[in-house]
UniProtKB/TrEMBL annotation:
<dbReference type="InterPro" id="IPR015883">
    <property type="entry name" value="Glyco_hydro_20_cat"/>
</dbReference>
<protein>
    <submittedName>
        <fullName>Beta-N-acetylglucosaminidase</fullName>
    </submittedName>
</protein>
<dbReference type="Pfam" id="PF02838">
    <property type="entry name" value="Glyco_hydro_20b"/>
</dbReference>
<dbReference type="InterPro" id="IPR017853">
    <property type="entry name" value="GH"/>
</dbReference>
<dbReference type="InterPro" id="IPR052764">
    <property type="entry name" value="GH20_Enzymes"/>
</dbReference>
<feature type="compositionally biased region" description="Low complexity">
    <location>
        <begin position="40"/>
        <end position="62"/>
    </location>
</feature>
<feature type="domain" description="Glycoside hydrolase family 20 catalytic">
    <location>
        <begin position="196"/>
        <end position="499"/>
    </location>
</feature>
<dbReference type="InterPro" id="IPR025705">
    <property type="entry name" value="Beta_hexosaminidase_sua/sub"/>
</dbReference>
<dbReference type="GO" id="GO:0004563">
    <property type="term" value="F:beta-N-acetylhexosaminidase activity"/>
</dbReference>
<feature type="domain" description="Beta-hexosaminidase bacterial type N-terminal">
    <location>
        <begin position="71"/>
        <end position="190"/>
    </location>
</feature>
<dbReference type="GO" id="GO:0005975">
    <property type="term" value="P:carbohydrate metabolic process"/>
</dbReference>
<feature type="region of interest" description="Disordered">
    <location>
        <begin position="16"/>
        <end position="93"/>
    </location>
</feature>
<keyword id="KW-0378">Hydrolase</keyword>
<comment type="similarity">
    <text>Belongs to the glycosyl hydrolase 20 family.</text>
</comment>
<dbReference type="InterPro" id="IPR015882">
    <property type="entry name" value="HEX_bac_N"/>
</dbReference>
<dbReference type="Pfam" id="PF00728">
    <property type="entry name" value="Glyco_hydro_20"/>
</dbReference>
<feature type="active site" description="Proton donor">
    <location>
        <position position="339"/>
    </location>
</feature>
Length: 540
């Protein structure tokens, strides 16, 4: 093989010029080299390609080739069985074919990215040199798992679900982009955590449709599968509404724009998770409906808080939840529930007598404002569950010592341990709840760095964080690992003008890569941080 491969292959927006880095390389009669990274199995002859339509063994790779090295990707593949052979390089005129019509979108995407021809659905007997074949089947029950086989001058990518096959194409794209050659052998890969997210606050700072779509492409290539959109807060309500147009801010996304965002995300197996935060953080709604404002015993309005003793408050929020459940068809929803100011005072019952009266009416003489807030959360849960969605809320929306308990199906988005009456994550886990990791110590990128926040670094996430580190820097016991569904890196725009869109994109670049590495494989990474950063620069 030539030592250097020069291509005119479009990868994202760039044109690649790459050098081989050990995936193929020149024939070498020397002793086999060990593979880099995590490797399971080293018998290329006996490796199961795991895919229908796996490339044939002809021409048989010569033993004069060194054993291939594991591909260098972000996140790192979890298993690679090395083999001897030249590997695979994309060449003009070669094909991407699919064995299943449902993989057409994945096939067209990778063909365009690698400068190949998408040839559509082809039978197993239609085989050509250089083919990339995508197929459904094989593997276990994890729909995000995949097998990628490079053998005999062809590539086979298979998995039990379309998402897994898509992730296999992301690995292939990175292999080619990072080194010019996809190394000979078999990759078997799957994520450790099912929820791998990025959350964006568009309420405080309006981000353009183009910027959001660029992030979706970036997230897809990194194997994230969630984009959270926090689009309602005290500052603004950022998406067009037909039920309550009076609450919508001038600088907002239209529903047509949101649909394009949702469709682009779906094509990359990313679920858009909307958040309409309540009963706090509703300032934009209250501005149009001042009669719903929560007022204390002295008549002073409480910032951002809606009066949950009023039926009209529930009606307007449910109107919005029902409206946007159609616009966001994915199966996940975020209710918010955090920082309700009525519960941050010393004596909520005395400070907010109307809430205390409503609580006693609902739950007897012992009813509290916290009971009433839990009722609110449960009622909003029921509204969203009617649309067949899995629902989460911030941990400080769950209260200790209430006569009313939050619905058991409500997942905990754990972000802080700073609230009044803060509880350790193990308290939620010990109660059997499923938890998502939004640890503000590592995963909160807060514009302007207000209060005690500092911009997180990729190095700190890479070296010190994993999904069990839910609060501060201490991991919860390993016995809770299965209840931790994953996590999310979050951008909050408290001081909206502190950074431009381009500055945010640059600032979160390495933290995103470090986060997904630890969500895909929580163990100690094979690469040092300097090497990981160099790899990220090479992959683009």
């Amino acid at each position: 093989m030539a030592a250097a491969f020069v291509g005119t292959i479009a990868l994202g927006t760039g044109v690649g010029v790459w050098a081989s880095d050990g995936g193929g390389g020149k024939p070498d009669a020397s002793a086999p080299r060990s593979s880099a990274g995590r490797v399971s199995g080293a018998d290329p002859a006996g490796a199961d390609p795991g895919a229908a339509g796996t490339p044939s063994a002809s021409p048989t790779p010569s033993r004069s080739y060194p054993l291939s090295q594991a591909p260098r990707t972000i996140p790192a593949v979890r298993s690679h069985a090395p083999a001897r052979g030249p590997g695979w390089q994309p060449r003009h005129g070669e094909r991407v074919v699919v064995s299943d019509a449902g993989l057409a979108d994945e096939g067209r995407l990778i063909a365009g990215e690698l400068g190949l021809t998408y040839a559509g659905q082809k039978g197993e007997d239609d085989v050509r040199a250089g083919d990339v074949r995508l197929a459904l089947g094989g593997g276990g029950g994890n729909q995000e798992s995949y097998t990628l086989t490079v053998r005999g001058g062809r590539v086979g990518i298979s998995g039990p679900g379309e998402a897994g096959v898509f992730y296999g194409t992301r690995t292939l794209k990175q292999e080619v982009h990072g080194g010019g050659t996809a190394p000979e052998g078999v990759v078997r890969d799957q994520p450790a955590k099912p929820d791998r997210g990025f959350m964006l606050d568009i309420a405080r700072k309006p981000f353009s449709e183009t910027w959001i779509e660029d992030r979706i492409r970036e997230l897809g290539d990194l194997k994230f599968n969630e984009l959270g959109l926090h689009f309602s807060d005290d500052q603004a309500f950022r998406i067009e509404s037909s039920t309550h147009p009076e609450i919508v801010s001038p600088d907002r996304l239209s529903k047509a724009q949101v649909k394009r965002i949702v469709d682009l995300a779906a094509g990359r197996h990313i679920t858009v998770v909307p958040e309409i935060d309540s009963p706090g953080h509703l300032g934009a709604v209250i501005a149009a409906h001042p009669d719903l404002t929560l007022r204390n015993a002295s008549g002073v309005p409480t910032k951002g808080a809606v009066d949950i003793s009023k039926d009209a408050s529930a009606r307007i929020v449910d109107d919005l939840l029902n409206e946007y459940a159609v616009l966001f068809p994915g199966g996940r929803w975020h209710l918010g529930g955090d920082e309700y100011q009525a519960l941050t005072v010393k004596d909520p019952q005395a400070s907010y007598p109307q809430l205390a009266a409503a609580a006693r009416q609902a739950h007897g003489s012992g009813g509290t404002v916290a009971d009433l807030a839990t009722d609110w959360l449960n009622d909003r849960y029921a509204t969203v569950r009617a649309h067949d969605k899995t629902v989460r809320a911030w941990n400080d929306g769950f209260f200790r010592g209430t006569s009313v308990q939050p619905e058991q199906g409500l997942q905990v988005a754990y972000w802080t341990g700073k609230e009044i009456g803060a509880r350790q994550p193990a308290e939620y886990l010990g109660a059997g709840r499923k938890v998502l990791n939004y640890n503000d110590e590592f995963l909160y990128y807060v514009l302007g760095q207000p209060q005690t926040f500092v911009y997180p670094t990729g190095q700190r996430i890479y070296e010190q964080w994993n999904p069990r580190v839910l609060r501060g820097t201490t991991a919860v016991p390993a016995r809770y690992d299965a209840q931790i569904l994953g996590g999310s890196f979050a951008v909050w725009c408290d001081i909206a003008g502190a950074q431009t869109e381009s500055q945010v994109a640059a600032g979160i670049r390495m933290p995103l890569r470090a986060t997904v590495q630890k969500l895909w494989d929580p163990g100690t990474p094979a690469l040092s941080w300097p090497d990981f950063r160099k790899l990220a620069d090479r992959l683009g």
